[in-house]
Amino acid sequence: MEYQREAERRVRVGIVGVGSHSYRNVLPTLTYLPMELVAIADVDPDLGSATARQYGVQNAYTSATEMYANEQLDAVLLCVSPQLHPKLAIEAFEAGLHVWMEKPVATRVSEVDDMIAARGDRIAVVGFKKVFMPATEKAKELLALDAMAPLRSIVGVYPMNIPAGGQRAIDSGEASKWLADGCHPVSLLLEIGGPAESVTVHRGIDDSGALIIRHVNGAISNLHLAEKAPPFQPVERYVVFGGNQSIEIENSRKITYQRGTKLSYARGTSFTLPGTDSGAVVWEAQDGMNTLENKAVFTQGMYGELQYFADCVLSNTQATRANLEFARQVVSVYEAGLLSNDDAVQITDH
Ligand SMILES: NC(=O)c1ccc[n+]([C@@H]2O[C@H](COP(=O)([O-])OP(=O)(O)OC[C@H]3O[C@@H](n4cnc5c(N)ncnc54)[C@H](O)[C@@H]3O)[C@@H](O)[C@H]2O)c1
Fold first, then answer.
1. Average confidence (pLDDT) over 198-218
2. Is 287 exposed, middle or buried (0-12, 13-18, 19+ CB in 10 A)?
């Protein structure tokens, strides 16, 4: 990696929205990226100008339109809301800019289609951080091994629920929390399992329960909706089963490759069989030294998603990962999940 101050070529970016997430996570991550922050736009003028002062940015605007008209930008970072991202993204494409935008990109599949239609030759990447977690990259590397084939099933555990409400909830956008929370685990399940063919939701107490994805390749994902799990505790985990092996991702920071052992069921007396070609291989971020790999922006994939966007822009290459087509799949699962009530809702256009 290259720190921003060392980079010879940098993407000139403006940022739209310098609220909580942008200020806490996106702006600090720029230190590790070949991106130069040139201008800021936020409808809150005080927030915009105070943030501009802190980052040594000359101009803060109260509208993105004004910023595009007055600044020489290569790209824009949108960090506002799924209700506003479609309009802001289309406006940025029309101004000739490449776009990175936070999740969720939109509240309707049709809005993602509108963005795809407006994108033209511009590059668009969505901040699906879990797609870029180092643990996800490792899981994909392991899944390419013969011993992991075929991929059969994935279990995910995430603290969330999926409200009942059907088409009304889709039309009103009232289930946007399911979208905002759910797009994290769903993006990981789709990245590892591939596109979804159908979605089934079983709801229980407090709309907790399970969301089952049947992937096009035949694999099944089971997202356990752990509503009211102990707050701010390490609840999130994934287990991927393929061949006769498995991969476990816990709390984003630890990945375990379980290869099995040749234990004799009735007569084996030790679980520590000799040799190093069986049992588990574990990778875990240490948290004692001030290195980069243990920082949340790296373990959670925020650095990866933004670096990927910068790479695509600097090499003028269309994004193939976490792009708008992928975002469309995520929003399709969201809509199907709201429509399902113990029945499989087909996703026809995958
Ligand atoms: N990837 C993650 O882990 C993660 C975490 C938190 C939030 N997010 C996403 O980040 C986005 C922002 O969330 P937040 O919690 O920072 O919200 P926020 O409300 O704190 O910030 C939004 C900012 O956008 C500004 N804004 C609103 N309309 C605008 C417009 N038309 N033009 C310019 N600025 C405008 C607001 O004034 C505010 O400062 C959301 O899409 C959210 O889902 C992602």
1. 97
2. exposed
CA 180 / ligand 1 centre spacing (Å): 11
Neighbours of 340 (CB within 10 A): 21
Residue 298 CA to ligand 1 center (angstroms) comes to 21
Whole-number Å distance between alpha carbons of 94 and 111? 16
- The C-alpha atoms of residue 224 and residue 124 are separated, in whole angstroms, by 31
pLDDT at residue 350, rounded to an integer:
64
For residue 42 and ligand 1, the question of a CB distance below 6 A is answered with yes
**Arithmetic mean of pLDDT, 54-77:** 98
- Phi then psi for residue 222, to 5 deg, are -125, 105
C-beta 43 within 6 A of ligand 1: yes
Quick: pLDDT tens for 309-340. Answer: 999 999 999 999 999 999 999 999 999 999 99
Yes or no: say if 106 and 304 are a contact pair by the CB < 8 Å rule.
no
- Taking the CA atoms of the chain, what radius of gyration do you get in angstroms? 21
What pLDDT score was predicted for residue 346? 97
- The amino acid sitting at 84 is L
Which amino acid, 5? R
Which pair of tokens denotes residue 138?
Answer: 């490792």
